[in-house]
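Hallway conversation turned thread

IA: we were arguing at lunch whether anyone had actually written out HmcF: HMC redox complex, cytoplasmic iron-sulfur protein end to end. Turns out nobody had. So, for the record, here is the sequence (462 residues) and right after it the structure tokens. Reply here if something looks off.
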Amino acid sequence: MPEGKFCNKKPVETPEGVNELLSDTSGNIYYKEMKELDVDSDLLWKTIQNTCKSRTKTWLEICAHCGMCAESCFLYQVNGRDPKQVPAYKIQSTLGEIIRKKGKVSNQFMRDTMEVAWAKCTCCNRCGTYCPHGIDTGIMFGYLRGLLYQQGFVPWELKIGAGMHRAYRAQMDVTDEDFVDTFEWMVEEYEDDYPGLTVPVDKENADIMYTVNAREVKHYPEDLAEAAVLFHMAGENWTVPSKGWEETSLAMFAGDWAACKMQVESVYDAMERLKPKRMVGTECGHAHRATVIEGPYWAGRENGLPPAESIHYVEWLAEALNTGKLKIDPSKRIKELVTLQDSCNYIRNQGLKKATRDIVSHIVEPGYFVEMSPNKEHNYCCGGGGGFNGIGLFRKQRNVALRKKRDQILATGAKLVLAPCHNCWDAIRDLEEEYEIGIRWSFLKPIIIKMLDIPDHLKPEE
């Protein structure tokens, strides 16, 4: 069967198409159709010839099979050190095999490869840190996902997610009107406590253009208001765009590179339209990677940079605390053991370890912060990155993957985990639900707000 009704090689382009795919509960029909999906070997090999560049070819050829990458991979560790979980084996037996066979692979092979690509690698890029040859298997898995997506072998949830970006320029069915209305409504809820609080929309030449994760609009609208409060308390000249407000990219997880380009260009269009001095993105790791690190290349920007200087929320928050724009009441600092989850996508990929620890130094009483071991750029993935959190088909594998972070947290003795990243936040929430180790977890915004030293002129009248 060349194409199924739900499982096929065609991207989902419209809201109607998204809803139709959503109607297939848990992807039951989708995965049945996948078993009959034809592999277009000619297209697969042509795509490889056109896109597999010298770096990837060299990496596949120079791998010494030394096994140094094995212990770097948390999935290898939590799965009984199965040799098939060694990063080098995983990529050589999938992408390497497709190239060796010039695309002439079977349906069963592609389905097995789909499981390896999404359930045996989170693209955390930790293996590349330890490879003596600098081979980054995570980068190659991102490329492999693109080949699989083109052929229709992609998890149901991520086919939907990529479709959302094509249809809404957001990872969920949140329209531009929904975003603005929700932000304004939530700010109104906080106005009595913070006089003068507003959300400036489409303000040109602001110092900050703020972008968010659509999940905040849909499921955590208080996060929008908290961001507004902190910008207000810091006296920032800021705005949000009415279009191009969504910073995340499930299309990146899915390997839908065309949708990645569409999504990031919507944010860049907002930057060029409003001309802010800086863009500040919310507490989300993959959103920062998609918009600031990978995005310029998807958009074909020759300088490798977004149209405006773009920073992660932890950078802005550290700056605001370090310069005194935001002041903490010392009596309200955290006085219990607390640890910090380092997000792969902005710690390992952009080195923001100092910013997060600057924040900790302001909000945690000395002696109460406990580092995970290992930490910073050596920290392990939360267990749910790269789309792993949201794929029902691989939930059992994901729950096993959470054990590494569980053990890291338990070793600290902390009951509170700071998690300034949506994927990490979700994974740690699920970790607690699955293993019940008695922890709490939080973004930075709500914690900071509770301990602010608010100037008299910004306090509400009695």
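OS: looked through it. The mean pLDDT is 96.
IA: good, adding that to the notes. The longest strand covers residues 208-211.
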